[in-house]
Design goal:
alpha+beta, four-stranded antiparallel beta sheet, 4 strands, elongated
C-alpha cells in the first residue's frame, strides 16, 4: 500500500470513529437528540463534556480502589456497610458506570425534553442551548478539547468526584487504623 493509500485509510477510519463529532453546537445537539431517542446511554456519555466524562471515570476508579482496600483490610463486620456506598466499584470504566446509571437517573427526563426538531442558540461565551420549543433546553458548552458537549451534568459529577476523593482519604485512614489495631493485638 502506498503512503497516500495508507493516509486515506487512516482519514476514513478517523471520520468513521467520530473523531470529528461535536465540533459545533449543532452537531452536539444532533448527537444528543439521536442518543436520547435511541435510549443509548453510551452515546449520551459520548456527548458529555470531556471534563464530565473524566469525572465519571475518576469516580469509578476511586470507588474500585476503595472497594479493594475495604475487602483486603477492613474487619469482616465492617465491610458490608463500607462497600454499600460504593455504587461505582463494580463497573469496569466510566462509560460502563454511566450506562448503568443512565436509565435510572437521566433517561426519562432527557426523553421528555427531546423532540424531532431541536433548535440551537449559541452565545458568544462558548455556551449554547439545545432543545425542542416546548421543553426545557439542554445546556451545551465548548469544552477545553474544542468539542461541544452536554454541560448539564458537569457540576453533579464534579461534586461526586470530590466526594470520592474525600472518601478515599477516609478509607486510607481507616485501613491504617485497622492495621495498627491488628498489630497491637
Amino acid at each position: 500500500m502506498t503512503a497516500a493509500g495508507l493516509a486515506a485509510v487512516v482519514l476514513l477510519g478517523s471520520l468513521g470513529s467520530g473523531c470529528s463529532r461535536n465540533q459545533t453546537a449543532e452537531s452536539a445537539c444532533e448527537s444528543l437528540r439521536n442518543a436520547v431517542l435511541e435510549a443509548d446511554g453510551i452515546a449520551v456519555f459520548d456527548v458529555l463534556l470531556q471534563n464530565t466524562q473524566w469525572s465519571v471515570a475518576t469516580v469509578q476508579k476511586l470507588h474500585r480502589r476503595m472497594a479493594e482496600s475495604i475487602r483486603s483490610s477492613y474487619p469482616a463486620g465492617e465491610q458490608a456497610a463500607a462497600l454499600s456506598r460504593l455504587y461505582a466499584a463494580d463497573s469496569d470504566n466510566g462509560r460502563e458506570l454511566f450506562l448503568q446509571l443512565y436509565t435510572e437517573r437521566y433517561a426519562a427526563d432527557f426523553r421528555a425534553r427531546v423532540g424531532e426538531q431541536m433548535s440551537v442558540e449559541v452565545d458568544a461565551a462558548g455556551q449554547a442551548r439545545c432543545g425542542a420549543t416546548t421543553a426545557q433546553p439542554f445546556p451545551l458548552a465548548l469544552g477545553r478539547d474544542g468539542k461541544w458537549g452536554l454541560s448539564e451534568l458537569d457540576r453533579e459529577w464534579e461534586d461526586a468526584k470530590l466526594r470520592a476523593y474525600h472518601d478515599q482519604e477516609t478509607v486510607t485512614k481507616n485501613v491504617e487504623l485497622y492495621r495498627r489495631v491488628g498489630a497491637g493485638k
